[in-house]
Structures are given as C-alpha cells and as structure tokens.
Automatic annotation (TrEMBL):
It comes from Rahnella bonaserana. PANTHER family: PIRIN-LIKE PROTEIN YHAK, QUERCETIN 2,3-DIOXYGENASE. Residues 5-119 form the Pirin N-terminal domain. This is Pirin family protein. Belongs to the pirin family. InterPro entries: Pirin (IPR012093), Pirin_N_dom (IPR003829), Quercetinase_C (IPR041602). CDD domains: cupin_Yhhw_C. Residues 142-232 form the Quercetin 2,3-dioxygenase C-terminal cupin domain. It holds the Pfam family Pirin.
Length: 234
C-alpha cells in the first residue's frame, strides 16, 4: 500500500530567519497521528537565512542526518566537536546525552537549504560522533545504512536510506526489506508503484508517501527527480 503525504498537508513555519516544512510533528506543529513513522522521527526541509543559526539544544537519542541542498553549514557540539558541510554533501551527527548541538549558516550572503532527518538510535550501538560524505553523481546510491556498506554513512539503527537522482523518463526498482518505508521527493514528480498492491501513486515536488507491505518499489521520474527512499524493516 502507498499512501501519499503531500507537501500542502505538511506543517510549515516562517519566522523570517527560518522557513520550514515539517512532515511529522515538530516544534509548534503538532498532530498526534503524525509523531513519526517507525524509527523515522523527523523529516524537515528548512531554509536558514544568511548568517542565521539554531542555538545549542539537546536531542533525544537519535542520529541527525543533514543533506545540504544549497549553501553551507557548520555543526558544533558542547564537547568541542564541529563539522562543516556544503551543497552536495551530507553530515551525520550521532547525538549523545547531555551534549548540546548548534547549527550555523556560515554564509553571510547565501541561504542554507537542507533536509534533516532524525532516526531513533539503538541504545547498544555507538558510532563516530560525526560523519560526512560527498554525494556521488549517480542515479542511485546508498546514503546511509546500519553497517556503512558501500561507503555509506553508518546509522545506529536498522535503516537503509537510498538517494535517487533521475532524469525525466528514467525508472528504477528498489527492493524494500521490511514492512515499512518512506519515499520523499526533494524535487521533481514521481510515479511510484508497489510490487504487491500494484498501486500507482503520483507525487509532486516536495510530496512524500508511506510505503507499507511492498516487496519492492518502482520509481519513475516524470520530471528531473531527486528523492529519498527510507527503508525501515522494523
């Protein structure tokens, strides 16, 4: 089954220095039916004005994945660690208890646009505190996984995150390991079809979809497409 979550249905914020779209409950936006999906707690797209920052804050035990779409960011923590990432890169923070984290748009002239995901972290797993990768120029690659396979970022949870970058008319079929996954259009229009239900769902730019009980998913790009498939077996 494929159930869409359109961009228009998502929560939004416009504070001047910050513009945001929230897939799940976050900050002032609250929907008790949308507190996350399996181990995916947060899926935000946010734009920070030049020089803007998020002040230090603590997190629950989550992995915070930032995919930089425009501009450049610096992430710092109260333990003295820092990492910078720019457009075409992704940064992963393995948050720790009693450590606070801040985010800064390091440009004085360019907005910072990024996707941010929070994923529940298994309590018995520990990884490097910060990780970064340059996103390869290919139609499909594994962005993050539990064991860092194929050079992907390593998560503290059984989640596989696939990054798609398809030209208009291109199509790809990806296996789905478990009962649940989430498909997110970063930009571009998608025809998504499951292998079990054979249901076809059309997604516009910024839309997402809950994937349930499908063995594989066929993604067809109706326009130039950039998307994520977040595969969550448990």
């Amino acid at each position: 089954m494929i159930t869409s979550r359109t961009a228009k249905e998502c929560g939004t914020a416009d504070f001047g220095w910050l513009q945001a779209r929230y897939t799940f409950s976050f900050g002032h936006y609250f929907d008790p039916k949308l507190m996350g999906y399996a181990s995916l707690r947060v899926l935000n797209q946010e734009v920070l004005a030049p020089g803007a920052s998020f002040q230090p804050r603590t997190y629950p035990r989550v992995d915070v994945l930032n995919i930089i779409l425009q501009g450049a960011a610096e992430y710092r923590d109260s333990a003295g660690n820092s990492i910078r990432a720019q457009a075409g890169e992704a940064a992963l923070l393995s948050t720790q208890p009693n450590v606070s984290y801040s985010e800064l748009n390091i440009s004085a002239s360019q907005p910072l646009t990024r996707m941010q995901l929070w994923l529940d972290a298994c309590p018995e797993h520990e990884n490097a505190l910060t990780q970064k990768m340059t996103l390869p120029d290919t139609t499909h690659f594994l962005l993050a996984s539990p064991d860092g396979e194929k050079g992907s970022l390593q998560l503290r949870q059984n989640v596989w995150i696939h990054h798609l970058d398809l030209a208009a008319g291109e199509q790809i079929t990806l296996p789905v390991r478990g009962p649940r996954a989430y498909l997110q259009s970063i930009h571009g229009q998608i025809d998504a079809q499951g292998s079990v239900s054979h249901e076809l769902q059309k997604l516009a730019c910024g839309d997402g979809a809950f994937i349930h009980q499908e063995n594989s998913l066929t993604v067809s790009a109706m326009t130039p497409l950039r998307a994520l498939l977040i595969d969550m077996p448990v």
